[in-house]
Amino acid sequence: MTTKNTANEVWVLTADLAGNPSADIVGVYETKDACRKDFQDLLDSVWPSNWPNDRTVDDNGNDKAECLEDLLFCDDGNRNYLEGQPFTVQKG
């Protein structure tokens, strides 16, 4: 019997919150939408409600909706970072 190798894409969500010395893998997901759901939950928990000077964007210049679309959030002041990225994994 022959084993067929197939490649699949997964989405990996990492978080580096409150100045942890390294990022943690939050989860691995079969779809971008599944990754986005957990990203949004984390983003809601760390998005500052009172950034100085009425700031409304992260350190990449993205508002909350853009962070959610890009699956990327950077807040250097509070040392909070979130990122969702696709990876190809080989099965077989």
Tell me about this structure.
With about 90 residues, the protein is of the alpha+beta class. The protein is built from 2 helices and 4 strands, in the order ββααββ. β1 and β2 form a beta hairpin. It starts with 5 loop residues before the first strand and ends with a strand. The model has no long low-confidence stretch (mean pLDDT about 85).
Write the layout of secondary structure elements.
Blueprint lengths: L5 E11 L7 E6 L2 H15 L17 H7 L1 E4 L4 E12 L1
Antiparallel strand pairs: 1-2, 1-4, 3-4
Tell me briefly what this model is.
The chain has a four-stranded antiparallel beta sheet. The protein is of the alpha+beta class and 92 residues long.
The helix-and-strand class reads alpha+beta
- Separation of the first and last Cα atoms: 13 Å
- Tell me, rounded to a whole number, the average pLDDT: 87
Largest sheet: 4 strands, antiparallel
Which strand-content bin applies to the residues?
A: 35-45%
Count of DSSP E strands?
4
List segments where confidence is low: pLDDT < 50 over at least 5 consecutive residues.
none
- Gyration radius (Cα, Å) is 16 Å
Can you write the helix and strand succession as a string?
A: EEHHEE
* Physical arrangement of strands within the biggest beta sheet: 2-1-4-3
Q: Helical segment tally?
A: 2
Identify the overall geometry: elongated
Roughly how much helix do the residues carry, as a percent range? 10-25%
